[in-house]
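#data-curation
PF: Archiving a pair of folding outputs for the training set. Convention for this channel: one message per protein, sequence first, structure tokens after, nothing in between. First:
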Amino acid sequence: MPVLTAGAGLHETLALLTSQLRPDANHKEDMVFLKDVFSERSLGYLMKIHEKLRQYERQSPTPVLHSASSLAEDVAEELQSGPMSTEEKELLHLLTSPHLKAVLSVHDTVAQKNFDPVLPPLPDDFEDELEEESVKIVRLVKNKEPLGATIRRDDATGAVIVARIMRGGAADRSGLVHVGDELREVNGVSVIHKRPDEISQLLSQSQGSITLKIIPAIKEEDRLKESKVYVRALFDYIPLEDKATPCQEAGLPFKRGDILQIVTQDDPTWWQAKRVGDSNLRAGLVPSKQVNFLNKFKHIFFFWLIIESASVSGFKTGLRRSFRLSRKDRQGSSGEGSDPGDPDYLTYEEVTRYQQRPHERPRLVVLIGSLGARINELKQRVIISKFLFCVPTDTTRPKKPHEKEGVEYHFVTKQQFDADALNNKFIEHGEYKENQYGTSIEAIRSVQAKNKMCIVDVQPEALKRLRTAEFKPYVIFVKPRVPESRRRRSAATSPGGGEHDLQEMRQSAIQIDQQYGHLVDRVLIKEDSASACAELRGILERLERESFWVPVSWVRT
């Protein structure tokens, strides 16, 4: 059996240990696991680095000087005191460069072994206080980040109590501050008679080391595991503009469409959350569904009245400009989807990651568009360039000679159309030039039954019928870009009329975004047909291979 010498290093020991591992019938899996771990190349490199550092440490190295920065400044000052040669000018340029100054500053810090901030000494009366009551002195080191805790004044006793600990913040990482702790002092300053806002300001202004005098809660809360609840925000939130938040600095700003991980819902009114993809480890406060519910309801109700009073024809283009949608469809009396006007819906929507599995029906692709988007033309171009299926429209008009049944239209009798409309078989339907047109929900099902990707363009109102677990729609909002130069040119060539059309396009996009934007997965800004077609093709390709956030109800069985 090989024997290690006295000077053998760790990596040699590791290699010898690996060679001695033998398969064992009772521990075969454990042996294989250990062998794989010990044979990992990166572990061998770490062992070699460790040995080199130990060898260097045994030499007891000492820095040549501890103040290289000061010496560089003295040399630079000396060079500037008289005429300089070319070499001296170059040296002065090097010594005054910010990069070299930073390197010398780091050298001095390492040479002086000054790695941590100097903590203040314990108070003289610390032992006496410990005898009077259970006092805990907590010393934390934080940078410019908030402490990550909010406070409140106890109504009965007047004590300053830690109300919540923000997950991932400085207080949470320390594990020394808990909900219910009574705060007495901050850096030696008593907070007993201070207002909560004064205490918050004192905490936020403290940099480096911060010393807290705390009376621990009778029972410290258990550290809970982080929640795995994810939601899509359906509104914008700016904490600095919210006077109702218990701590504006602790608030988490977000925009509509952001995915939030709800860390804890212990407080029924203020949840703690993190933005998915955000590098900040500290959670922030977000309003729960209960916060300002009445104010939100009033705002949504007022907005709903404005939208309902707007002309429906302002949303339509081409053939759809003259559609008269049935009121029954607009109300969605029998649809499964969520009602966009529901005030409870306009807060958060619980979501999860979803990826289409092999042999699973592809997701329905839904296009909605504002005035000028010409989404039907865009749809047709994408269908030609990619193996997609468009849902034929049911119509009562006569078939033209060049048309084929079931390609773009299903030609039906007026009696059949009226019966289907009465039985609520259309996603949407309307009238154009005394002929009826409608998009059948069964036509979509027939395409998806063949496991083919299906794409439809509908009015935004139809989303109520389509947003179901059956279709799992991916909604794309197409709106045209109107550059400033185009606006001026249109106004110049057609004063009044051109600008009026552009204003209608902008207003149409704004209204759709305000009323239905929370149901949209992707906004496609249409610069021109070619670039919009290419972008849409890219979206469709990613739908087949990538995962996306969808409502939890779509994947739960």
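PF: Second:
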Amino acid sequence: MEPKRYVIGTAGHIDHGKTMLTRVLTGVNTDRLKEEQKRNISIEPGFAPLTLPSGLTVSIIDVPGHEKLIRQMVAGVVGIDFVLLVVAADEGVMPQTREHLSILDLLGLKNGLLLLNKIDRADPDLLPIIEEDLLELARGTFLEGAPILHISSVTGEGIDHLLQVLDQKLPHIEQRKSEAPFRLPVDRSFIVKGAGTVVTGTVQSGSTGPGEVLELLPGGKRVKVRQTQVHSQTVPMVQAGQRAALNLTGVDREEVFRGQTVVQPGIWSTSRRIDIRAVSLPDLDFSLRQRSLVTLMIGTSEVFAELILYDRKEWKPGEEIYASLVLREPVVAGHGDRFILRRPTPSATIGGGEVAEPAAVKRKIHPSSAREIRQTFVGGLSVRILRELDQALLLTFRELQSLSGEGEATLCAELEALKEVDRILPVASGFAAVDTLTRIEEEMRIWLTSYHQEHPMLPGVPKAEWAARFLPDLGTKEVNTLLEMWEERRILNQKGEYIALHSFTPDLPDQWKPAVNQVVNRLQKEGWTPTEWETLLQEAKIPAKFGEDIRGFLVREAILVPLTKKLLMHREAYDRAVELAAKTIRREGSLTMQQAKECFGLSRKYLVPLLELMDKKGITRRVGDKRILIQEDKASQ
């Protein structure tokens, strides 16, 4: 059975004893920086292993409590499964206690304990009041109903009981999924002498091990894993839910920074615009207007973003919204990722929520946009797949995995379910949404029907024009793949570089058939000396605007053969000319211009383009002042 993996985080006001508690539990002083030890406060998140009485080893993260270090606090709690909210019994609930709990609640934490620390220094008469304040604070949050444990990191009171409670509660927490593609937000990077660059963080999803090629985003730097560790112990693989250290090759320490994410290549990408579901804290004393500047904290990243509202003019305290964020810098985000929003100045936590769409498109400012974002968010993976296919029309499995951030097994199962209910259709190596294909097919039928009625003599619409109208965002390969599918389904036909409905056959309009027959019959009689095309049109009273379409139709139907733009010869006359030229060459060995004049009795106006057309079609070839026969089969056609 796979070992359990949990990360515990501490939270609470500065000086309430979080770091001392971590040291008592683990034996590790997580204040590793000189400044932290000098000032006796935590500046960066600290990490240590904790072995419980049952033998289960978990990770514990001690986060800073100072109000100016909220960024470090948020980066530290990313990926924790269980929180210890620490309150000093001699001080009670303080401002950062409230803000930390709000942040933890907004980040979607579901499990934790309330700890009254420094119980040895508590006033027995005030203790019931502090407990009541703590219960009131927890009301309406994920810690409502959580037990309050009395502890002292100095005397050791309650520490054994705390460990026993953790042993009881942790095994019931749902494990993080390892099946999704690998992702580790970087919270630290440093150099180890003799090893090189090392990054640390909590594995959000997937697994990796030595020899794996990964990617650093933003930046796109490819790196290779040399070694993987969990709490300074070398392991063959790190998995979701573990505090991990990756020794990387191919990158210098100066190229890595907190806020980057180490990912499986080709699956994850960076976002500059995300759709969100968010809720603001109810006790705010301000609202946010359209395009307000906010600070987005997601993963270990902190970037400025512009808030785009669709169904309201301002975001008021306690309201839930479906909106978008336009980011000043790229971040790595996945559907459902939790985030915190803060006001840049004066600093204050606004609220938080979840990512509805990490690769959002620009939307119109209208309530319908908010409804679309909500539908994407609540609809689950199937809705997201269908939406992506509707936008892109045709996507490979790899592309769908990149857009969804899901593991292979999960995505395969969802695609199979959608195929069974005829919502998607496999097309070559990719997938398309049936509803989207049906809509495009109906649009094509309507438009092509109108086009064929307007241009009945043309073989269809030029392929480039058709693709630009119906498949504007697809490459040549994808366009040809869909075209082949529509040909197999007898919806479209491709004739050379023209696209037409399968049921369409080019033909002369009834109103022009008599006049065209008159022109064709005349050319048949004139043989090798045809009248110029414009003259024929004028005499048959055919408008010039129809003349080009008629000309093209007659040539494609092999009724006429174009000698020049002005001269067209009837096919029968041309075939006789080819036969006569071939016969002469077989008898004489070649055909000179003088011999051609004698054979055909034509002036250069007709003879030269006739002989050059035979050259162009590969029947004859000019060698000096003579022509020889190239292909007997063409000459006999």
